[in-house]
Amino acid sequence: RNYLQPRELPLDVLRLEYYYRQRGYREAQVDTVVERSNGTVHLTFEIDEGEPVRIDSLAVELWGEIADSSGLRGLPVAVGDPLDDLLLDAARDSLTAELRNEGHAHAEVLVSNFVPAGTREAQVTFDVYPGPRAQFGPVQVFGNERLDSLSVVRMLPFRTGDVYRARQVQEGQRNLYGLELIQSARIVERLDPGDTIVPLEVFVAEGQLHRVRTGLGWTTLDCLNAEARWASRNFGGGARR
Q1: Residue 130 in contact with residue 218, Cβ under 8 Å?
Q2: What is the model's pTM?
Q3: CA distance 156 to 47
Q4: pLDDT in tens, 96-139
Q5: How far apart are CA 68 and CA 91, in angstroms?
Q6: In 148-183, which positions are buried (b, 16+ CB within 10 angstroms) versus exposed (e)?
Q7: Which phi and psi (to 5°) does residue 190 adopt?
Q8: Checking DSSP bridges between strand 54-62 and strand 121-129, what pairing results, if any?
Q9: Which of 166, 187, 173 is nearest to 96 (CA)?
Q10: Sheet with strand 135-142: strands edge to edge
Q11: 3-state class (DSSP) for residue 193
C-alpha cells in the first residue's frame, strides 16, 4: 500500500517541473488535485507543458588540430530540436568518445547554451579541446600467478607505440575474458596531464586451472554408461586449453 504524504506533494511538483525543464520545456506548469473518499485518495497531476525552448543555432568550435573532423558532424541534436539537456550531454559524450578513439586521450568537450530574455530560441555551442595525439605506452600485468604475462599482452588488440584508441582498451578487456583461466580482468590507464604516452596496467584474477566433469546415466539400450572429462586451461603454458 502507498500512503499519502502531503509534504511530498510540493516536492513531486518540483520534480516534474525539473523533468520538463531538462527536456526544454522551461515554462511547464504542474498542479495537483486531491480527492478524498472513504479513506482513499485519488491524486491527479495536471500538467501544462507550454512551448519548448528550441535550438536556433548550433556551433562546434574546434580549439586545436585533429586528423579527421567528420566525427564532429554526427551529433544527436540539430537546429529546431527542443533544448534537451540530456541530449546535449549525450552529444558532448559522443564527441569526447570520438576524439579519444582517434588518439586524443586528453580530449575535453564543453557545451554551453544561451537563451536571450523573452525568447524561446537557444544558441548552443560545443567547445572542443582535442589536445595532442597520444600513443600506447608500456603494459604491466598484475595478479597472474600461473599464466605468463606475455599470454595476457598477446590478447590486447594494440602494441606499445600504436596510436591510442579508447575502444581498443575496452576490446582488450573483453578479449581477456575469452581466456578461460581468467576469472576477471581490468585495464587501468595511467595517464598524466599533458603526457602523450599512455601506460597501462592490467589486473587479472585467475580461476581454476583444471576442470573435471563426470556423468553417469542409464538407458534401455546401453543399460549403464559413464563419462568423465578433464580439461587444463594452461596446458604447457600460454593459456593453451
Answers
A1: no
A2: 0.76
A3: 53
A4: 999 999 999 999 999 999 999 989 999 999 999 999 999 999 99
A5: 18
A6: eeebbbebbebeeeeebbbebbeebbebbeebebbe
A7: -105, 75
A8: parallel
A9: 166
A10: 135-142, 197-206, 182-189
A11: coil
